[in-house]
Amino acid sequence: MLRTIVVLLLSIGVLSLLWLIRPAPAERIAPTWVVPPPPSGLHERIPAAPPTLAPAPPISTETLLVQPNLDVAIPADLYHPADHPALALQLDQALAYVSARFGSPPTSRMRAQIIHDQGCMLRGLARTDQRVLEVLTCNDLPHHRVINIAAHEFVHQLAHDRYGAVHMQSDLIMLEGIATWGAGSYWLGGSPSFRDFVRDNYSANLLPLATHYRGRSIHDMNQLYYQWASFVEFLLETHGRERLDALAVTGNRQPGSGDYVGVYGVPLAELEQAWRAWQES
């Protein structure tokens, strides 16, 4: 009996010691290999988030406004509620404009999700496989800048509808050049064409078309988008839409990776030389 009691006390002591020295519980964070990759139709230009836990955003209700061509969701704490209908209408009008300019309408309804960004960083992305575009903005930024960003993202959805998901993996020159060109007047700032815009703003220091914006300044990134849009304009004017559509589904997301020889019979370098001459003529 005494022996049984001693064994029992020793067992309790060992269990207590194991409890005291056990490892601390691991944080409930999914390791990278369990986190699913972005959808194939995700297009974004947002830097990767640092590997830290951000505080949860404040809960905000939203207004859903149903327009002829899309649904628009706006947070209740973003802009004055009385301005929401006008903003939704302008977004719908922008979609109609870029659809006409691009040459084909959306295949079905989409959703424009306006997000109140506490850091006040204006940016957009298109989740084309979900038919959702997002524009992050804040109360200090005017409505028209939301419309300008949305116009570009709308064209990404239209391109997905026209070319299929393969377009989202195409040559970056085509991927962003077509979306910028398709946004038209929303990105031209009063210029009659992207050719004129580039001539007036960048002609003294053109960047090579096959330049990636990764690691470069915002100024360079903007310049590349406008140059690529001008290049798309050049290809349309000199070679027509059919060839542009064929090029738009080639490449591997690297600028200059498209099948220029297969579509136009010459490499990108030769087309770029002709574009530069056209640009300055």
List the helices and strands and how they pair.
Blueprint: H1 2-21, E1 42-44, E2 62-66, E3 70-75, H2 84-102, E4 110-116, E5 123-127, E6 132-137, H3 143-163, H4 172-183, H5 185-188, H6 194-202, H7 218-239, H8 241-247, H9 260-264, H10 268-280
Parallel strand pairs: 3-4, 4-6
Antiparallel strand pairs: 1-5, 2-3, 5-6
Helix pairs in contact: 2-3, 3-4, 4-7, 6-7, 7-8, 7-10
- Low-confidence spans: 1-54
Structural class from helices and strands?
A: alpha/beta
What is the beta-strand fraction?
5-15%
Major sheet: order of its strands? 1-5-6-4-3-2
* Integer-rounded radius of gyration: 26 Å
Number of domains: 2
Largest sheet: 6 strands, mixed
N-to-C terminal Cα separation, in Å? 106 Å
DSSP E strands, number: 6
Shape: globular
The number of helical runs is: 10
What is the helix fraction of residues, given as a range? 40-55%
Helix-strand topology string: HEEEHEEEHHHHHHHH
Mean pLDDT: 84
